[in-house]
Design brief:
The protein is mainly α. Helix content is 49%, strand content 3%. It contains eight helices and two strands; from the N terminus they run H-H-H-H-E-H-H-E-H-H. The chain has a two-stranded antiparallel sheet with strand order 1-2.
């Protein structure tokens, strides 16, 4: 961590402890049995916890694997024809967070279950524009955006796979 690299170990320890405390508090407040809530005070609400991918990729380990296992199992029950909605309020999703969420899966089979509807959507979408990242998971129709740089977020699975990362990072370094 940066604080540790700059000789600020006491600050690093404090930030780490605070982060761990907040993660535990979130788990307690958001626990809804078979998943974690979108809104602490509203039972039955849910959302993709896509930003947990950074806890995994950065090796922070603030959240136990139980959190992602529970979420992935729940998400598999919420899949629509063309993917997993962002949350329980609407049927739309965003492609990059969907891939981040799938990357949280502990195994390839669960990853593929979450990604397969998005592959189907890419093949069947009635909207033929440069890849949109915001679409309806029931109709497949574009909701707005197109050709945005955030679509690069779909490569997060490659970053999460050490062998794949090494393979392509090596190519980039070798081409300089």
């Amino acid at each position: 961590m940066l604080c540790e690299m700059t000789g600020r170990q006491p600050d690093a320890a404090l930030y780490r402890k605070t982060s761990q405390d907040f993660a535990r508090k979130w788990m307690d407040l958001a626990d809804d049995g078979d998943h974690y809530r979108l809104a602490f005070d509203k039972a039955g609400t849910w959302s993709q916890k896509y930003n947990l991918v950074w806890d995994k990729l950065l090796g922070l380990n603030l959240f136990p694997e139980e959190v992602t296992r529970k979420e992935i199992a729940f998400y598999e029950t919420k899949l629509n024809e063309y993917g997993l909605p962002l949350d329980d309020r609407k049927d739309y999703t965003k492609l990059d967070p969907l891939v981040w969420t799938a990357t949280l899966a502990g195994n390839q089979s669960d990853f593929e279950k979450l990604i397969a509807p998005a592959y189907r959507w890419i093949d069947e979408t009635p909207t033929r524009v440069p890849l949109t990242d915001w679409y309806d998971t029931v109709t497949g129709k574009q909701q707005g955006f197109q050709a945005r740089s955030v679509v690069g977020g779909v490569f997060v699975k490659m970053v999460a796979d050490p062998a794949m990362w090494k393979k392509y990072a090596g190519r980039a370094i070798g081409s300089q």
